[in-house]
């Protein structure tokens, strides 16, 4: 390794380049690095000289990376993470750590999996800080760029769904937490409950409330129905699951959602659970992170503890459901 040549370069420029790639804005990068916009513009000029490439082209939506910059991004992120790992302590002690972790999660997954997690976590790592944000259409990008430590989301297993596991960004790894089926929720006293049977015709005759995910409101269920020349009458669309619960509680609208979430909901809302009267592929909950954190001891400890807690917490419920079937 010819370190004499490497010493001629200001390696801080690489940190600036990584932030520019993540923010794609000179002003946002300057704010994040606590420097003036003028200083960041000068840094960008130095980077262009260093790589002999424009690196970014201005567009209506900010800076657009050139092909050279896009090719540099995965190598650069990996190299900086390796350097960060190099200077960090080799061991992780949860009892004394003061690390902060950012976790993005579906609102339904948060209510299902996390409230009972905080007591054992605080006992093991009393000074750790967890910051939670709602899962959105930008969350996968945040995982890929290292702005988020962990994500809890769901992916439909239907081959033609927009929410499959395959489209996850390059470098994002995941563990399966559990699989689930879809069911229906209606308010207690709903007229449909007085019927002797519950068929697909009954389901389609009712109006529905739909919760979106990652900016999409069309689910595998709707694709399956369309193949049969059928469709639901969705009259309300909301951005999160608990808003849908409130609407179903106070109206005759049907809310279709994962069974584990529905079981939790009927314990806290005056709702009744009904089976989904159409065959549908399952949904899988995932714990996701970027591969740059794969060997980080603190990150590994947290995700293993979270994974084990969720699996153990749901194990008895899953066994009960299997017996019911």
UniProtKB/TrEMBL annotation:
Superkingdom of origin: Bacteria
Record has NAD as a keyword: no
Lineage of the species this protein comes from: Bacteria, Pseudomonadati, Pseudomonadota, Gammaproteobacteria, Oceanospirillales
One GO molecular-function entry: DNA binding
Family designation: Belongs to the LysR transcriptional regulatory family.
Cross-referenced Gene3D superfamilies: Periplasmic binding protein-like II, Winged helix-like DNA-binding domain superfamily/Winged helix DNA-binding domain
Keywords, ordered alphabetically: DNA-binding, Transcription, Transcription regulation
CDD domains noted in UniProt: PBP2_Nitroaromatics_like
Organism: Zooshikella ganghwensis
HTH lysR-type domain ranges (all copies): 9-66
Protein name: LysR family transcriptional regulator
């Amino acid at each position: 390794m010819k370190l004499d040549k490497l010493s001629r370069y200001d390696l801080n420029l690489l940190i600036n380049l990584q932030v520019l790639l993540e923010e794609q804005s000179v002003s946002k990068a300057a704010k994040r690095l606590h420097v003036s916009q003028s200083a960041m513009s000068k840094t960008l000029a130095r980077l262009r000289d260093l790589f002999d490439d424009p690196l970014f082209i201005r567009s209506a939506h900010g800076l657009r990376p050139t092909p050279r910059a896009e090719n540099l991004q995965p190598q650069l992120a990996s190299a900086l993470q390796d350097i960060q790992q190099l200077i960090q302590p080799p061991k992780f002690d949860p009892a004394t750590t003061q690390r902060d972790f950012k976790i993005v999660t579906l609102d339904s997954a948060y209510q299902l999996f996390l409230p009972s997690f905080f007591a054992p976590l605080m006992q093991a790592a009393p000074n750790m800080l967890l910051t939670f944000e709602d899962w959105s259409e930008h969350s996968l990008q945040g995982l890929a760029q290292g702005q988020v430590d962990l994500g809890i989301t769901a992916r439909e297993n239907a081959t033609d769904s927009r929410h499959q596991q395959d489209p996850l960004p390059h470098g994002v790894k995941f563990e399966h937490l559990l699989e689930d089926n879809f069911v229906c929720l209606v308010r207690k006293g709903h007229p449909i409950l007085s019927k002797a049977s519950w068929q697909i015709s009954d389901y389609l005759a009712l109006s529905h409330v739909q919760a979106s995910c990652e900016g999409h409101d069309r689910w595998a269920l709707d694709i399956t129905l369309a193949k049969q020349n059928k469709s639901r009458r969705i009259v309300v669309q909301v951005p999160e699951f608990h808003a849908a619960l409130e609407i179903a509680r106070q109206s005759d609208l049907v809310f279709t959602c994962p069974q584990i979430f529905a079981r939790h909901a009927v314990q806290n809302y005056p709702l009744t659970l009904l089976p989904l009267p159409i065959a549908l592929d399952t949904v899988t909950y995932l714990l996701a992170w970027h591969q740059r954190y794969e060997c980080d001891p603190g990150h590994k400890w947290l995700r293993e503890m979270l994974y084990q807690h969720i699996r153990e917490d749901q194990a008895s419920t899953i066994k009960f459901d299997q017996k019911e079937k």
